[in-house]
């Protein structure tokens, strides 16, 4: 395979961006808020029990295990978010809090290295007995990620040593050798984490274990079937929903050609599969990743970059089954999709993966958190009518307002670690290339080969279409600057030091191959119009409807601007779409307005009638989808009915 591209170190990327900084600036307050939640100090919220569980396991408190069996993972993701923040923003007080948490985690570790508060407290003596449903390896994976990130950020190896002891135990426990457990996780995540640990430590057996978990998955006889047939095994899960496809064991990984089952598990799995495929040079695994990714994007992904249309099982259903009001679209699933896309981008160097990564990040990931950073969506529908969602038992999963916290709180720390690590998504580099994947205003330093390079990007993307990139080097630096042409944009012109550039477009990247020296200025002008989007006619929920996007940002109607009964609006095919930047709204955002129609309420209370309803002219105002519900409870709608003449 071609050499994999690498992200720039987070400490080398300083973001100051119109669209993103309003969220990233809330990371420190968000970490403080979540630490309070993990310690059960937030009023009027469901208890977390996270730190309570660790303190009980450490002998520091009395009590019983509380929360979900995977509660430990929330602490791990929080620590990972802290690490990413500390790498770019030294904060002694926050680092001290994290160090104290790590000490508690170390005290909770068992003598043989085992570290899981659920089995230490709730089911002692039953470790590894329910790999399918009890998330031991999933929690271990998140702690591996946290340990590697914290070591990279601070140079402190306390957590890394704790986790390496645990992973050494896992390596001694699992495998194909006699006396070892030939199993694999019910919730994938440890696969991608083990590859990170392999890079951090150089221990080949960590990579070998990741490959074992990937290779064994779906092989007959299925380990999960062996597990459930053991005496005393019980499960409260409905087998019609929690079946082999739910766990991605319906076929060996290399034979899977559609995205199946729980959306988060699927995308975490294939993120790890992509890592293993590259590290071992396994083209058959990489081909499976390409096939599943294409199935997601072409047939099972929402316009907003969300995945998982079925609420029961938080899972993929069938091709083109994309309902707007009842979908699950878990925030974690879009985080995982962005991670999967990032891996594929680094390996394949194809902008189609960056397009998906951008789509998920700009829309569903940001929609999952309020502008204040302290309210969260777990589920992300594309249509909400509060009086129906609040009363319909079929829509119990849909929350009409962001929540302070959740009993199952996987999404808030997942979002915060993503915001804290946004710098890793912007660039990819190797010895001869610097790829610009996302257009955020930032300053970055990197080494291309042996040369030091500084890059400064100024832009108001996606609201405006111009991008200025200043490249500085102290000496001759021959390399290729590869600039992504977004799939939703058209290249107007590109100028280098005042002269028009005529460059090759390869896999969606404009390749500027130069011997860079001193300072050069690259100016790009995209055509970035508001675009009408129409779904494949097989998407039944969107037939006769249209959605608006500008760049990666999907737009929606919200009741705060348009009144109630948003479903009564019609957008004419020939309506003029007017863009206006509103400085007073959400701290500044681009809005879109259009003249259309709305079915009138004529006061007739009869449920059905023989005459068609009257329509009135009406103005519609659209805002970016990620901002909805930041002004209180109300209706929201992405797909609008078309008025066809």
Brief summary:
By secondary structure, this protein is of the alpha+beta class. The chain has helices spanning 21-24, 27-38, 50-57, 72-88, 92-108, 117-122, 136-154, 158-173, 190-201, 204-216, 223-228, 263-280, 283-300, 331-348, 351-367, 386-389, 411-420, 423-426, 559-562, and strands at 13-15, 383-384, 427-429, 433-436, 442-448, 451-459, 466-484, 490-496, 499-500, 504-506, 509-527, 530-533, 545-550, 553-558, 569-572, 578-582, 589-599, 615-624, 636-637, 640-643. The mean pLDDT is 97.
Keywords, separated by commas or semicolons:
about 650 residues, alpha+beta, 10-stranded mixed β-sheet, globular
Itemize the secondary structure elements and their pairings:
Blueprint: E1 13-15, H1 21-24, H2 27-38, H3 50-57, H4 72-88, H5 92-108, H6 117-122, H7 136-154, H8 158-173, H9 190-201, H10 204-216, H11 223-228, H12 263-280, H13 283-300, H14 331-348, H15 351-367, E2 383-384, H16 386-389, H17 411-420, H18 423-426, E3 427-429, E4 433-436, E5 442-448, E6 451-459, E7 466-484, E8 490-496, E9 499-500, E10 504-506, E11 509-527, E12 530-533, E13 545-550, E14 553-558, H19 559-562, E15 569-572, E16 578-582, E17 589-599, E18 615-624, E19 636-637, E20 640-643
Parallel strand pairs: 4-7, 15-20
Antiparallel strand pairs: 1-5, 2-19, 3-4, 5-6, 6-7, 7-11, 8-9, 8-11, 10-11, 12-13, 13-14, 13-20, 14-18, 14-19, 15-17, 16-17, 17-18
